[in-house]
Amino acid sequence: MAAALATLLVAGASAALAEPAKAVREENGKYFAANDAPTYNVKADGTVDWYTFSGYRRYHAECHTCHGPDGMGSTYAPALVDSLKRLSYEDFTATVIQGRQNVGGGKESVMPSFGTNNNVACYLDDIYVYLKARSDDALGRVRPAKRDDKPAAAKEAENVCLGAS
Asked: Where is there biased composition of kind Basic and acidic residues (predicted)?
């Protein structure tokens, strides 16, 4: 996961820094930015929406080994809080699902595909919104203390994706 996102960092380096992903609409507890990408909602009291909280949990279960705690990077993989300042939602999801390999300059970097890993693929939007909240400084480097309840739509989508329904 690290190497491919490192490539995206380089590829997206010429892109302008993205504006914070402010929510413009909500559907069944899921928030969306003006560009229709999923986004986070952090209330004034620190309560996060369910999907951001779920993304925190999924990120720390599957991604932090390479990308470090809270998306801050490691000696092995880039800081995703920086990458998401430049990457679009579509580029992020394509890289995670398809993986990426870069070879050049005497260095090889590989981000494996997570398209068949349901612990990632079924929660990809959640991971994205968590990292976007971190990237926009809307969420600190700690487990969110308060969260909204899990929406029925999230339960249904999870059951469908995991084959439980």
From this structure: 142-158
Other CB atoms closer than 10 Å to residue 98's CB: what's the count? Answer: 13
- The full DSSP string for 90-149 is HHHHHHHHH-EEEEETTEEEEE---TT-HHHHTTHHHHHHHHHHHHTTSS-SS--SEEPP
> If pLDDT is split at 50, 70 and 90, which confidence band does 7 have?
very low
The helix (H) or strand (E) run that includes residue 32 is strand 30-32
Strands 47-48 vs 146-147: parallel, antiparallel or unpaired: parallel
* Section 49-66 average pLDDT: 95
Number of domains in the chain: 1
9-18 confidence digits (pLDDT tens): 444 443 445 6
| Within a domain: 148 | no
Instruction: Tell me whether residue 132 is in a domain.
Output: yes
Return the minimum-mean-pLDDT range out of 34-43, 63-72, 128-137: 63-72
Q: Is residue 114 part of a domain?
A: yes
Q: What are phi and psi of 142, to 5 degrees?
A: -135, 165
Residue 55: closest CA among 112, 160, 165, 135: 135
CA 129 to chain centre: 5
